[in-house]
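Practice problem 4.
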């Protein structure tokens, strides 16, 4: 078993033949598509990847990854830390045709070369584990502060009536409609 920082590229065929397991870390900033959704690209992804031989010269990789990322809370717009966890169970094949030949319940990755990046293996799974809407727990969310500030900033007329900026347009429309109806009767 290999432990420590994972290499940028690994030979998946050799690792599968030897039934090797890799365990280590990757820099979050190397996951460029994932970091587009984050506040900060700093951190380390912990990963475990086990390689085995699959049918027809393919490699099977099973593993998991986890990382704590910083997202924007959609309630209060403050940063919120969120733990992403992903499971991986993919067959690595040489061609797109081989990918289409896989059974429906088997996920696959196309890699025409023997070398593949662990980032390529894990990035899509981590992206899929992002929450649909990032939020703090209710106790940690500062949404009440924003509600109070919003209530303080609302304009209220001295008479207590709500100001309707387009109400005059309705009256003008009625006047124009009445005037055009009066002309057409002549």
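Answer key:
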């Amino acid at each position: 078993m290999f432990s420590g920082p994972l290499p940028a590229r690994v030979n998946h065929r050799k690792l599968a033949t030897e039934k090797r397991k890799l365990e280590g870390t990757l820099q979050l900033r190397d996951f460029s598509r994932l970091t587009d959704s984050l506040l900060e690209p700093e951190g380390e992804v912990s990963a475990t990847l086990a390689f085995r031989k699959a049918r027809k010269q393919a490699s099977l990789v099973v593993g998991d990854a986890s990382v704590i990322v910083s997202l924007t809370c959609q309630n209060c717009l403050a940063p919120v830390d969120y733990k992403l966890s992903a499971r991986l169970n993919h067959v690595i094949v040489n061609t797109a045709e081989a990918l289409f030949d896989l059974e429906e319940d088997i996920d696959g990755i196309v890699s025409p070369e023997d070398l593949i990046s662990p980032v390529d293996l894990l990035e899509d799974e981590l992206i899929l584990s992002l929450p649909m809407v990032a939020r703090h727990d209710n106790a940690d969310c500062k949404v009440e502060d924003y509600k109070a500030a919003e209530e303080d900033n609302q304009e209220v007329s001295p008479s207590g009536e709500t100001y309707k900026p387009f109400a005059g347009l309705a009256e003008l429309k009625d006047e124009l409609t009445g005037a055009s109806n009066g002309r057409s009767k002549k």
